[in-house]
Amino acid sequence: MSSLLVVLSAAAAVAAAAASRGPDMMPRAAEGAKAEMTEVFKAVVTNGVEGFQPPLVDGGILESEGKSDGRGIQELWRVVTGGTPGDFNLYIFAMSWKAEWCYHQNFPGCKKPRSFWEKNLTIHGLWPDYGDGTYPTTCSSEPYDHDRVVNAIGLDVLETMWPNIQVPEEFAGKKYDSFWEHEWTKHGTCTGLSMEEYFSTAISLLQRRFLTPPQLAENVGGQTTRVDLEDAYGGEGMAVLDCRGKVHLNQVYLCLEPDPETHLPGEQVACPPAVVAHDDTCGQDSLDVAAFE
Prior knowledge:
GO terms for molecular function: ribonuclease T2 activity; RNA binding. By secondary structure, this protein is α+β, with helices and mostly antiparallel strands. It is built from 13 helices and 10 strands.
């Protein structure tokens, strides 16, 4: 345990120092720290470390992803680095099953779900990733612009396909936009795409390439199987399935190769082991497909 903490502390210190010099310096000055942190991350994911608590670092070299919904608690950690727009190895396209997100929740969107959400996945995000347990974040200071995005896509399409269920739709503007602003700032700025391209690309993936399969739409309130759902997305290893309580389907993650010229998502590929280790949390063959209460 002591050697683990020494490595974490040293790597975090180097990365924090690099981050203080600005995002453009982060990839170069912190490369050694990133490599060490990645190895630690892989060891923790693979073997576990009882009582492990990563140190806090300004700017967040380690990010907690706590998942708690009354069906069990998971707390996962990922190594986070700064980055350069367009410099990453794959996209993770994250889609959510909103009825599960709404389980025993009192959010406005859960009280008045749109009909589309009842039988379709919605967008959580389109995330650049290094594929090794790390990902770039906040790669530029370009602020989210509500008018640009809405003019390019349409407010109704965004609220349907990429909803913020925690805020009433009548609060259109800054408060409802907080989810889209978060996704752009944290992930979109690292894609190398324009703001309009980023949001329209994610919408297109959901509308045209990865329509919700019948294995979900026809089993709302019942069950599907892991094998059937994986087959719908190309077979074993082609979809990472996130569950609450190991059996309640919550999210589906797909991995896509970025085009080196345009930075747009290209061919779907099997997600690398580090992504599977972190995000695949469904531990049963039969999976519950929640319906809105």
